[in-house]
Design a protein that fits this description.
This protein has about 70 residues and is mainly alpha-helical. The protein contains 2 helices and no strands. It is found in: Cell membrane; Membrane.
């Protein structure tokens, strides 16, 4: 079945080309330093904690407000 073999070779060459192109693009990426990565991680962590606390406070406030209307 020559058609299937040709299709398989075509698929294999496309995958190899894709991987080569991805590797070439990844070399162009400006990766953060360890220090930058730690700083960015800290910013994200603190932001998540603050937004979570804000949502918790708003949720608690609305719960109290709604309970006072119901009773």
């Amino acid at each position: 079945m020559p058609g299937q073999e040709m299709a398989l070779q075509n698929s294999t060459s496309k995958v190899k080309r894709f991987v080569r192109e991805v590797r070439a693009e990844m070399k162009k990426v400006s990766w953060p330093t360890r220090q930058e990565l730690l700083a960015y991680t800290a910013v994200v962590f603190v932001s998540v904690v603050l937004v979570s606390a804000l949502i918790w406070v708003i949720d608690g406030g609305l719960s109290i407000l709604l309970r006072s209307f119901i009773h």
